[in-house]
């Protein structure tokens, strides 16, 4: 079996010849590129694949989206970068909203210092943007990458980032504090807008359902201490049930990106219809022990197990190897387990440890 066949076999609840191993290496890859440390042979689409192949990790993220979006006249999006500050602006006939982000040169990532949505008026503008968007198929770009990755991986068809409306607000558009303030002060309109936001992306899901993607993932950045059980059951669960029914009817396998704490939300994912929970992060980074993942997750396929932090030299080699060996033992016994980084190898990650996962899986421990 190749790595694609192994992954699909587990997702279909079969038994592969060995445990699949997939790693999201995009974070360390982009940091190496920015620092001028990325070897020439690893540049470009083929180089990105070679990077994974040389490190022995299956590739799944990130292919082009399955759709492209155009906006109605009168809607304009612009970005301006001034040093380490980026300002993004949406201008519409209903008004303007903007965000600011600060770039950290040590962590190689952006953080919001001001979100787009801070008031109910801002939320109305966000809704206007979503409801005045048109979506079109982008299958050719997706299939090009899927063919390139071939048996060494599989192109994941992502849904919008994030998909469930309240996850959009928490992780991208508004942040936690602003979302909760709008919810408390304007509950009825807040709930109506969430419903309309969901409906505004029906065409995207039609395109995904008709697409060549075999596996579709919801990039929700779900974390139990942010969303919580009550909000998940009230807002996320009905949405996920509906979308999973659509995708399964179209023959797709589905997963959800849960890369934070697990104890409240992980047990709820199986009832939402997901085939897999991806980026599952156990202790010592998450809040559930490796040995308790299956008990917490229920019958859903677990994809993850190796916290990204453990690839950092901040953790000793003995700690990494011990955790890796335990993960492999548990995955072998479990059967419904894809070993993966939870959720990314960080910029200071040791590539030797990425290689070591393959060595251990191939019996070199």
Write a structural description.
- A 7-stranded parallel β-sheet has the order 1-13-12-11-10-9-8. A 4-stranded antiparallel β-sheet has the order 3-4-5-6. Strands 2-7 form a two-stranded antiparallel sheet.
- Helix 6 (165-173) packs across helix 10 and helix 7 packs across helix 8.
- The mean pLDDT is 97.
- Helix 10 links the parallel strand 9 and strand 10 (253-258).
- It is built from 13 helices and 13 strands.
- The longest helix is centred in the middle third of the chain and has 26 residues, at 224-249.
- By secondary structure, the chain is an alpha/beta fold.
- It folds into 2 domains: 3-68 and 133-163 and 201-361, TIM Barrel; 73-131 and 165-200, no CATH class.
- The two termini are 22 Å apart.
- The chain is globular and about 60 Å long.
What's the arrangement of secondary structure elements?
Blueprint: H1 3-11, E1 21-22, H2 26-34, H3 44-55, E2 67-71, E3 76-82, E4 85-92, E5 95-104, E6 109-114, H4 120-131, E7 133-137, H5 139-149, E8 157-158, H6 165-173, H7 175-185, H8 187-199, H9 202-209, E9 215-222, H10 224-249, E10 253-258, E11 276-280, H11 293-297, E12 301-307, H12 317-334, E13 337-342, H13 351-361
């Amino acid at each position: 079996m190749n790595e694609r066949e192994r992954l699909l076999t587990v997702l279909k609840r079969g038994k592969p010849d060995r445990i699949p191993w997939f790693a999201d290496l995009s974070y360390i890859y982009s940091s190496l590129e920015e620092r001028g440390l990325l070897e020439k042979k690893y540049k470009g689409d083929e180089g990105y694949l070679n990077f994974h192949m040389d490190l022995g990790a299956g590739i799944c993220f990130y292919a082009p989206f399955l759709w492209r979006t155009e906006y109605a006249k009168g809607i304009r999006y612009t970005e301006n970068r001034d040093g380490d500050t980026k300002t993004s602006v949406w201008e519409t006939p209903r008004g303007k909203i903007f965000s600011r982000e600060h770039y950290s040169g040590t962590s190689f990532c952006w953080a919001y210092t001001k979100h787009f949505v801070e008031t109910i008026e801002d939320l109305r503008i966000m809704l206007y943007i979503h409801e005045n968007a048109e979506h079109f198929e982008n299958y050719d770009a997706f299939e090009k990458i899927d063919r390139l990755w071939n048996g060494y991986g599989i192109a994941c068809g992502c849904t919008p980032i994030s998909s469930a409306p309240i996850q959009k607000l928490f992780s991208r558009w508004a942040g936690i504090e602003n979302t909760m303030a709008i919810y408390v002060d304007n509950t009825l309109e807040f709930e109506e807008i969430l419903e309309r936001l969901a409906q505004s992306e029906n065409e995207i899901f039609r395109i995904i359902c008709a697409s060549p993607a075999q596996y579709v993932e919801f990039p929700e950045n779900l974390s139990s201490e942010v969303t919580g059980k009550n909000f998940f059951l009230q807002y996320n669960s009905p949405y996920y049930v509906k979308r999973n029914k659509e995708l399964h009817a179209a023959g797709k396998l589905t997963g959800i990106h849960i890369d934070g704490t697990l104890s409240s939300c992980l047990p709820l994912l199986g009832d939402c219809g997901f085939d897999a929970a991806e980026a599952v992060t156990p202790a010592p980074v998450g809040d559930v022990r490796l040995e308790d993942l299956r008990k917490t997750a229920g019958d859903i396929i677990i994809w993850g197990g190796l916290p990204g932090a453990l690839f950092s030299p901040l953790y000793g080699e003995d700690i990494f190897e011990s955790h890796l060996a335990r993960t492999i033992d548990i995955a072998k016994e479990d059967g419904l387990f894809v070993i993966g980084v939870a959720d990314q190898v960080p910029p200071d990650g040791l590539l030797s440890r990425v290689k070591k996962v393959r060595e251990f899986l191939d019996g070199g421990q």
